[in-house]
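User: Sequence recovery, please. Input:
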């Protein structure tokens, strides 16, 4: 069976696409999409990825039809960096068997979860 090899993109409707693109690049290190077909796209590091269908009313999705979860190497360092830039971040105080999590909203109110993998998913 042929299988998908990874996530090739996430496309989000935005009121101000240029501002949101810059925000993700500045605060989370996600490079802007390439301007030409000759420019390389942002490459993610190999690691665990979860694709999960959830009930539409789950609190995890915060009333949206999707949730963005981004893997980070050092959750504490990323949280400190975001807070230094006046981005409000809530760290989940409970460590889970699969790692640690923090939640924030992007400038347009979209939920973003940061995940430092742990347990069997740790690097």
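Assistant: Recovered sequence (123 residues):
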């Amino acid at each position: 069976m042929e299988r998908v090899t990874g996530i090739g993109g996430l496309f989000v409707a935005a009121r101000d696409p240029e501002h949101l693109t810059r925000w993700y690049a500045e605060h989370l290190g996600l490079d802007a999409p390439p301007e030409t077909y000759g420019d390389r796209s942002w490459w993610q590091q190999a690691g665990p990825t979860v694709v999960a269908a959830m009930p539409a009313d789950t609190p995890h999705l915060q009333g949206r039809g999707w949730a963005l979860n981004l893997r980070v190497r050092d959750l504490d360092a990323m949280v400190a960096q975001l807070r230094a830039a006046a981005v409000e971040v809530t760290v989940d105080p409970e460590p889970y068997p699969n790692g640690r999590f923090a939640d924030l909203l992007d400038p347009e109110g979209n939920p973003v979860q940061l995940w430092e993998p742990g347990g069997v998913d740790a690097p």
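The chain has a mean pLDDT of 91.
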